[in-house]
Amino acid sequence: MGRLPSPSLPLFSAGGWGMVAALMKAGSPAAFRRLCNEIGTVDAVGIEERVAKYATRSVKQASKVAGLKLVVSMVDLTTLEGKDTPDKVASLCQKALHPHAGLDVPPVAAVCVYPSMVKHARRALGADTAVRIASVATAFPSGQAPLRSRLAEVKAALADGADEIDMVINRGAFLAGEFQLVQDEITAVRDTCGAATLKVILEVSELETYDNIRAASFLAMRVLRPGDFIKTSTGKTLLNATLGNNQVMLEAIRDFYLETGIPIAMKPAGGIRTAKQSLHFLIAVKETLGDAWLTNRRYRFGASSLLNDLLRQLEKEKTGTYQAPYHFSEAAESY
Q: Which residues are designated catalytic?
């Protein structure tokens, strides 16, 4: 796997009581205290200082083009709207396979749709394709449904041809300190997935603190398999992926890997709309986890409106001029 980069800033805050204090009201302070002792807490000031430096990195033209193409290959092209139709999904699949004529760019990593649209995506993509089909499940985005219903949704998506399942955790159980319940539910979904890849959505805005994000990351990773993902957001809340919460999760992945040797993948989702932003996220990956994570098997972007800006920037690097936004086919809403 190669040696991981050493952290350049302190990871743990002094005392280690941030998460406990934030959630003492939640019913199981002893459980939080034990978890804090096991995994440590986050130096929030250190995180913000570190991610601020990513925007100052200079990227030369050849590296920029390579980085933009790499991001294209990492995009999960997504439509998650109540007005989704089979034709809209078919159009999305064509864009996934061929992002833009005249540009030497790879297909995206996956298309991501609701379970009811999986069969239409499979029909459009066919069986022999590099583009995977991901489906949000488990009562996305709230996760507020009986477990048997959530597992039935997973089974239906897989039966219709999904390669990957994006599940949401039970945030209410986490905030109540019911850690075993959270892990048991993730385990049940993992086992239902079989060989399919599982992505566990933490919904970071509802976890509220960096300490809670780190704790939820560890709870998920402890029951995931190599190559499964932890993911920031559903894209359906006001705050989604930021460099800060992405960094907290990357450092959790690094620490878990150093402890166990198990490589967990990462997916920031929602709010990443520009090519410039995406390069900052790539820099974060390289400096925290190293080159082994610079692949769509270990890092994804859950952001569809990002794709057109990537293509626009690549066209500019090729021709020297910016094309109008309508020059590129319309993508689905970002999530």
A: 166, 231, 267
